[in-house]
Design a protein that fits this description.
There is one protein chain. By secondary structure, the protein is an alpha/beta fold. It has two domains: 2-217, 3-Layer(aba) Sandwich (Rossmann fold), CATH 3.40.50.300; 221-292, MTH889-like domain (Alpha-Beta Plaits), CATH 3.30.70.1340. The chain is built from eleven helices and 14 strands. The protein has helices at 40-47, 69-73, 91-101, 106-119, 135-147, 165-178, 191-197, 215-219, 235-241, 271-280, 295-305; strands at residues 2-11, 14-24, 29-33, 55-60, 63-64, 76-79, 153-156, 183-188, 200-205, 208-214, 220-228, 245-251, 259-264, 285-292. The longest helix is centred in the middle third of the chain and has 14 residues, at 106-119. The two termini are 30 Å apart. The structure holds adenosine-5'-triphosphate (ATP). Adenosine-5'-triphosphate binds at residues 11, 14, 16, 34, 36-42, 81, 189.
Amino acid sequence: MIEIRDLSKSYGEIHALKSATIDIQKGEIVGLLGPNGAGKTTLMKLITGVLEPDSGSVLINGLDIVKDRAKVQAKIGYLPENAPLYPELSVQDYLLMMAELRLIEPDKKIPAVIDAIHAVNLSEVSVRPIGQLSKGMRQRVGLAQAILHKPEILILDEPTVGLDPTQIIEIRQLIKNLAKQSTILFSTHILSEVEALCDRVIMIMNGKIKADSRLSKLANTDNAILILDEDRPNTVNLLKKLEGVVGVNREVDNHEFPHFFIQGQPAADITPRIFQLAVENNWPVRELRKDIHTLESVFNELAISE
Ligand code: ATP
């Protein structure tokens, strides 16, 4: 549905996006994760046709955003980082104005505004001036304008930034609801946001795509951790001889109990074999588990390797 190929953009000397290639399928919710200045907003502006790339392409359902901007933009809803809201206008007047700008047919404008107001739960404040609303409510107005034309794709730039925890939960719930109808790409620098909302994450740092993976895949390693109550002779050597084991490291620092980090071959599933070995040798097993990466540890590793 979204095909991004070798997309690059510079602002003078600053290479904000370097040769990004991404495919997003219909119905996905994809989190774009990166620190400040990583290039998230630039990528979103290029996808939505707000900016033109220096090189590369963005195709939406086979149409090029640069060559067919109007047609493509009709399929996309965009919530920019700082949505330009008009504080003196009421919610419904602002949305009617946006419906006009989006060229929604005259007889469909009012139903579109009503639908959007319902979808983001703004009915109770629809006649209030936007300037009198809380930040969370204003963010919902931003979401309402993004979905007015019932787009197939929603691009949301840091939709929860600056909100309090209750508002964050509300906006996340709204995004989940919107995902039933639309493909969603949202940016954030909050790791837990990605875990709460989506199952695919694209990590961007310094303008480069550093990872693009299902969360479950990113978290899973082929390694295991064995903790014993006390050391037993020959443990490391016996573990090393196990089928599928690449290496074993006995960690001595800061651990009350002996820890063994056991590296497995890809997809070898070594944990059951380690369990069997421990039973055969009567080892006092305190804990045996797969070594699971957290999103945070992956992110930190990538940041260190930058
Ligand atoms: P944030 O989370 O802080 O919004 P971001 O990941 O969205 O950051 P971008 O806004 O895309 O990052 O910025 C990427 C780089 O490009 C940064 O170094 C930024 O300073 C620079 N940049 C962005 N817009 C411009 C501009 N209009 N002119 C010059 N440099 C810019």
